[in-house]
Specification:
7 helices; 2 domains; globular; alpha/beta
Length: 206
């Protein structure tokens, strides 16, 4: 993972922007059965543990700070109570996502230091996602919400891979290394200068 490779992972509209969670993650999951709920939370716990970060049962300011929605049609979001108050221009967003046939969307909120304060994750089970195992979908979403990755970070290559021996779905080792380095206590919770990518690359190399 060169500095240039890592820089590309956090490109937002042509600008470098990195952010990790600045507080324990308190997830709440909508639209799944109890069995799948445990899979989703298990995947999130695994990725958060890899990062050396923490999860909690309650956020003193927000209650739950990570809301994950699973559904089959984007229009279902328009019927979720109070969601419009949390997601600006929800109707326009839904229309745009429907038009492009999107299967997922993430929105982050940041604190005064620039760290991730809250996340809203929307997953439409269509476009091939419905054919994947719950474990694969859950692990993919957990990886993508633990950092504010750039919009093109995984456009050409998934953060997941198949284990060469057992065939199980795993996190790509180089992406796991970036996550661990990103949560190194000596690293800042947010950065907008590309020199940050060089610091991440140095820690990944170790």
């Amino acid at each position: 993972m060169t500095p240039e490779t890592i820089e590309a992972l956090f490109q937002h509209g042509g600008h470098y922007h990195f952010a990790r969670w600045g507080r324990p993650i308190v997830p709440v999951v909508f639209g799944v059965e109890d069995a799948t709920l445990s899979v989703v939370k298990g995947a999130l716990e695994a990725v958060v543990g890899l990062a050396g970060h923490k999860m909690a049962d309650h956020d003193p300011e927000l209650g739950a700070n990570c809301m994950i929605f699973f559904f089959t049609e984007w229009s279902e979001l328009l019927g979720v109570p109070n969601l419009g108050a949390m997601i600006p221009d929800l109707e326009a967003l839904v229309a745009r996502l429907q038009k492009v046939g999107a299967t997922q969307y993430r929105a982050f909120r940041f604190d005064d230091a620039g760290a991730i304060q809250a996340a809203f994750v929307f997953v439409r089970m269509g476009g091939g996602l419905e054919e994947m195992s719950a474990e694969t979908v859950a692990l993919g979403q957990a990886v993508q919400l633990v950092l504010d990755w750039g919009e093109g970070a995984f456009a050409e290559r998934s953060p997941l891979a198949l284990h060469p021996e057992g065939g199980a779905v795993i996190l790509r080792p180089e992406i796991a290394a970036v996550i661990r380095a990103a949560y190194d206590p000596v690293m800042p919770a947010a950065a907008r200068d590309v020199s940050h990518a060089h610091r991440l690359a140095a820690r990944v190399a170790l």
